[in-house]
Amino acid sequence: MFNGTFTLWSEPSIQAINPNCQLPNQTIIVVARQASSGTTSIFTSALAAFDGRWKATKGTFSVGVDNITYQPIKWDANVVRYFGPTNRDVAGLIRSIRYTVGFLSVGEAQVELVDYAALGNMNNRFILPTASSLLEAINSKVHEATLTPDLVNAQLPNAYPLSSYTYFAFYKTQTRDCTLAMELVRYIQWLITDPAAKNDAESVGFSTLSVGMGSRVVKEVLEHVTCKGQLVMDMVQADVEEVTVDKSWLVPVAVTVPVFLLVVGLMAVYIIFQRLKLNTMINMDDWNIPIEDIVFYYDEKMQLASVSGKSRFLRQKSVRSLKSIGEISEGPELLSQILQWPG
């Protein structure tokens, strides 16, 4: 597609490896990056690894077009018809022009909602770009002498064939701020070993180093970084503060918690006992109280009585029992009302 060998999506060789979809009989429109780009460098290095003719004629390059003439430098102008200044522009061209193909990093393709393909590796397996397929590519070169091997077209069966490292460079001999040197070493250690770093990388289509390559970085790089004549790793270890945990709260908690649990347990037992007792009383009719044992309470009444021809208020007793109900003038009426109550 990128050297003009295939010009139609319906080419038999393309259709043969996509048996589950009917490809259109339309011209393949190729887009690429305009400015100098690491993405272009990685992609063209992969093309050179895949095809000897590309390696001999084009090779690896990073610049798309000349800044003055705006003409492609190594791309074939008859093949690559559109150029985007940035990866986001390339994504916009792919989304807006039908039958277009281009190249982006996985994270950018995911953000820009651009579909991407599984690529055939040297083991004739079609592999999607994932963290695991990238780690497979890293592990395929973990024993090489250099820490910057080319990961494209890796030999392991599940390796994604278009993989690459992202690099950053720093001086192993630091001469200015040792605090910054220590933080740099700490950051690289975190980037290699911390699960949070792994999750962050995978969320944007990257991966952290494999265990084997991470160990090499520690032994061959971090353990040799110096600042003002001292090993920074030793400075980092010496700077680790021992966290003293205040355990004075353990004794009161150890005493209070069992007591609290005991009180709660006793309350629960008491409630259960009372509940069982109530159920037993109901079942045995112990709640039926003889009516003659009931004491009736009613409000005090002020009655007007005539004594010696003069009117005055007499205060009656406020409590009467059924045994003396005859002494109350309204006793029979009260008893009649009581007997009408349910139960």
From TrEMBL:
tRNA-binding is among the record's keywords: no
Domain PBP residue range list: 2-193
Positions of transmembrane segments: 249-273
Keywords assigned: Membrane, Transmembrane, Transmembrane helix
InterPro entries: PBP_domain, Phosphate-bind_PstS
Coiled-coil stretches: none
Record-linked Pfam families: PBP_like_2
Family: Belongs to the PstS family.
Protein known as: PBP domain-containing protein
Organism: Lymnaea stagnalis
